[in-house]
Amino acid sequence: MSEHHSFSRRPRNVEEFIQEANVPVPVRPADAEPLPWAQAREDVTKPYQLRLPEKHYLMLKYIADKTPYSMHAFCLDTLLKAIETKALEISRVNHFTHKAD
Amino acid sequence: MIVLIGGEKCGSSKSTLATNLAVARALLGHDVFLLDTDTQGSASLWTQLRDAADIKPHIACMQKFGQGVQAAIRDLATRYDDIIIDAGGRDSAELRASLVVCQRVYTPVQSSQFDLWSLEKMDELVATAKGFNALLEAYIVVTRAPTNIMMQEVGEARAFLQDFAHYTLAHTVIYERAAWRKASRQGRAVIELDRQDYKASNELKLLCEEIFRE
C-alpha cells in the first residue's frame, strides 16, 4: 500500500466533508450575476403555450383519461422536475466554465 | 434500504449494476427509486429508453446534483422501500453526500483494472463517512471478470482487495457478458431479455440477495 493520504485532517462535520470533494458543490460567488429566477415569486404563475405533435397530444389526452392526472397536471409534474434539474445543471456548468476561464 | 453504487473509477459498471438492481428489486414487489447523481446521466437515459419502450415495471428515476442530494435521499427514503443511488466515477459532492446517508455502499471494481490509488481514496472516504454514518457498510464487488476459467484475474483481484481496512469483498462476482451491455442498450435488466443469459441473470439474482439481505 502506498502512503498516499488525501485528508490532511478529519472534516469537522458532514457539510465540510461534502464540500471537500474534488468536484465540490458549486457555491456561487457573492458577486456573481443573480440567476434569472432568483427573485421569482412562489405565488405567481406565468402562462406558456405548449405546442405538441398531434400524436403526443393524443397520448397526453390518453394519459389524462386513464390516470388521475389532468393533461395540465401531468405536464406540470413532469416538466417542473426536468426544468429544475436542467437549469441547476446549466448554472453549475456555467459557473465552472467561467471559473476555468 | 438505501444502497449506493459508487466509486471513483469510471467504466466499472456502476450504472449497469444500479439499473439492473432496480429492476430486480421492483420485480420482487419492492417500491424502488433510482437516484442518478452522475452528470453523464446513464441511469436516467436508461429509464428513458425503458419508458419509451413501455417496459414494466416502471422505474422511478431522477437526476440530482449539488447541495440537495442528502436531503433528497432522506426524503425519498420515507416514500420508497429501496433507494438505489448511482454515483459517478469521481470524488464528487454527490458521492460524499450519498455516503453519509446510505446503509450500504457497493464499489464496483473491474478485475483487470483495479486501481490502487482510487481504491485507497475510496477507502479513506468510507472511513471518514463512517464517522458521520456509523451504520455504513462498504463492499467491493468485482465486475467485468473474464469468463475464461484459465484467467486468474478474479483470484488475484480478491487477494489484492482484502487489504482494504474499511471495505469487505462481496461474494458475488459479475462476469463480462454481452447480456449486460445488450440489456443496458434496451433499457432492460439482464433478467428481462427475450433470450436470457441465465448466468448473467443468476449473477444479478445473487448480487441482489447479497445486497438486500437483512
Observed structural traits:
heterodimer, A: 101 residues, mainly alpha, elongated, disordered N terminus, disordered C terminus, B: 214 residues, alpha/beta, Rossmann fold, seven-stranded parallel sheet, 8 helices, 42% helix
SSE string of chain A: HHH
Order of helices and strands of chain B: EHEHEHEHEHEHEHH
Strand content of chain A: under 5%
Distance between the termini of chain B: 10 Å
State the total count of DSSP E strands of chain B.
Answer: 7
Q: How can the largest sheet of chain B be summarized?
A: 7 strands, parallel
Q: Strand content of the residues of chain B, in percent?
A: 15-25%
Shape of chain A: elongated
What can you see in these coordinates?
The complex is a heterodimer of chains A (101) and B (214). Chain A is mainly alpha-helical and 101 residues long. Chain A has a domain at 49-101. Chain A is built from three helices and no strands. The longest helix of chain A has 30 residues, at 71-100. The two termini of chain A are 38 Å apart. Chain B is an alpha/beta fold. Chain B has a single domain (2-211), classed as P-loop containing nucleotide triphosphate hydrolases (Rossmann fold, 3-Layer(aba) Sandwich). Helices cover 42% and strands 17% of the residues of chain B. Chain B is built from eight helices and seven strands. Chain B has helices at residues 14-27, 42-52, 69-77, 93-99, 116-132, 153-161, 178-186, 198-211; strands at 2-6, 32-36, 60-63, 82-87, 104-110, 137-143, 168-169. In chain B, strands 3-2-4-1-5-6-7 form a seven-stranded parallel β-sheet, with helices on both faces. In chain B, α5 links the parallel β5 (104-110) and β6. In chain B, α1 (14-27) packs across α2. The N and C termini of chain B lie close together (10 Å). The interface between A and B is medium-sized, with 25 and 26 residues.
